[in-house]
Structures are given as structure tokens and as C-alpha cells.
Amino acid sequence: MIAEPGTPTLDQLRVFLTVVNEGSFAGAARKLHRATSVVSYSIANLEMQLGVSLFDRKTTRKPQLTDAGRTVLAEARTIYNGIDGLRAKVRGLLHGLEAEVHLVLDVMLPNERVVDALKAFREEFPTVALHLHIEALGAVTQRVLERRATLGVSGPLATSISGIERVAVGKVALVPVAAPSHPLAQQSTNQPGAGRSHVQLVLTDRSRLTEDQEFAVVATHTWRLADLGAKHLLLREGIGWGNMPIDRVRDDLESGRLVQLDLPDCPGGDYVFDVIYRTDTPPGPAARWLIERFKGQAADT
């Protein structure tokens, strides 16, 4: 062991992070288009420079991080993300404002927030082309991961996604509703489990990230809908019950076209939003402006 650690290269840190992300030296080699022996040699040199063992190669078949490796991992990610940020800033200096921004929004984001952000964006950046996509659940993150969107406003995910930065930008309340003619709307207070006996209308997910995951689903019989507008229409027609963002049904509740249900086992709750982007593609000036706009909206609510 050496008394003073050396200075690793950015390439060594890249190889180290790739081994961790891919779960093996062979996987990292495929990802980096290098021979496995070259990856192993690079990690060995990094360990020699730092004076610590990063992986336990003796007790497991796959390389597992040592305690020292986990500490180095956190710092390596910070350094590499800092380099990505530096490159993005220099790219902005060299090329100026983005020519276009691809934005994907969760369908649950209140309409007034969408209109506020986009109208202000048009006034602030009249020369920047905006490509807008609307998705549900994990499909928002999927589009950002696949680089089909620069920036997204995503709903909650059960797990963190490697390579994705998240910035909290508020929430919207979800409430269980049904048409006045629906049996659940006939009772001022329903017994626990009452919702299980009736068709629940559920927004379906078109992404691989959250497929087979259930979000506030309690009924044994469900109808899966890919469009929030279609769900809203069927709810008003009395075909099932379901959770809806309060801003989408406020007028219906006030007019009596829908009724907020009292369901002890499905009372609704907050649906939180995060602005998301890839850590290796930090937002440029126009996209950063959008992030601040969405953050400001959340602070005002």
C-alpha cells in the first residue's frame, strides 16, 4: 500500500464507472468496445495509483465493490458528472443557444402549468424550436433515457434510474371519482374494500421501466386506458371509477357531473413531479430556463 494516492485519469474513472454500471469486466469491455484484458489492466492500474482495492475478486464470481470501492465510486461519479457539466457549458459558449428543445411532460401535469411554461418560453426564446411530447408514468423517463427528449417532467418512479438527474417541481392531488349514477357515489361513506367490487379505470404504462407495476390499483376488475382524456370521458359516463388529478375534474365536481368518492382503502394522494435529464447531457440555456420556470411554479403553489 502506498502512503499518498496518485492522480487517476478520466479514462480510468470512466472504465471504473462502466464496470460498476455493467456489473462485470466483460460487460464493461463490450460497452467500451475494448478487450476484457484491457479493462482489467486499467482497473489494476487505478487500484495501484489509489493504493486501495476497489473490487473483491476472491469471494464472488462477479466483481463486488469493497468499502473503499464504494467511497471511490461516489467521488468518481461526482468528478465525471462535473466534467459533463463543464463540457455542456463550453458547448454553450461555442455554439450558443440550443436550436431546439425536445420536452416530454407527464400527462398528469396540470394544464395551467403547461400553458404557463410554454407561453413564457415562446416569449423568452422565440428562435428555439420546441418539440413537445406527452406521456404517462415511466414512458417519460424512457424517452429521456433513449435521448428522444432533452428534458422531461416525470411523475414518481419506484426506483432511482442511473444516469438521470432529478429536480423536484411540485405535485398534484389525485382524487377518486365516479359519475353520480355509479353505485360507489350513492353512499356518503363506503366500507373498506368497496372499490374492489367495481370496475376501476387505470392509466396504463407504455414503457418497460414500470410495466407490471401497479399504482393505486385496488379493484379486481380493471380497464386499462392509454389516454387520460379517454379515462375522463368514461368516468363521466359512469363506466367505472378511478383516480384523477384534481385540476382535471374540478369543474365536473362543482357541476355535479362527477362525485368525489369516500374510499377508506383508496383515498387518493399526492402525485409528485420531477424535472429529469441525462447526467451526460446537461441542459443548455433554454432548457435550464424551463427547469427554473417549473421550479418557480411549484414554489407559487
- The whole-angstrom Rg is 24 Å
Distance between the termini: 56 Å
Q: What is the share of helical residues? A: 40-55%
Number of strands: 11
Largest sheet: 7 strands, mixed
Range of strand content: 15-25%
Individual helix count:
9
Query: What's the order of the H and E elements?
Result: HHHEEHEHEHEEEEHEHEEH
> What does the average pLDDT come to?
87
Helix/strand-derived class?
A: alpha/beta
Gross geometry: globular
**Uncertain spans:** none
Describe the structure.
By secondary structure, the chain is an alpha/beta fold. The chain has nine helices and eleven strands. It has helices spanning 10-22, 25-32, 36-50, 67-95, 111-124, 138-145, 228-236, 246-255, 285-300, and strands at 55-56, 64-65, 100-106, 129-135, 151-154, 164-178, 200-203, 222-225, 242-245, 259-260, 269-278. The strands form three sheets. Strands 3, 4, 5, 6, 9, 10 and 11 form a seven-stranded mixed beta sheet that branches. The chain starts with 9 loop residues before the first helix and ends with a helix.
Short description:
Helices cover 41% and strands 20% of the residues. The protein is of the alpha/beta class.
Write the layout of secondary structure elements.
Layout: H1 10-22, H2 25-32, H3 36-50, E1 55-56, E2 64-65, H4 67-95, E3 100-106, H5 111-124, E4 129-135, H6 138-145, E5 151-154, E6 164-178, E7 200-203, E8 222-225, H7 228-236, E9 242-245, H8 246-255, E10 259-260, E11 269-278, H9 285-300
Parallel strand pairs: 3-4, 3-5, 7-8
Antiparallel strand pairs: 1-2, 5-11, 6-9, 6-10, 6-11
Helix pairs in contact: 1-2, 1-3, 1-4, 2-3
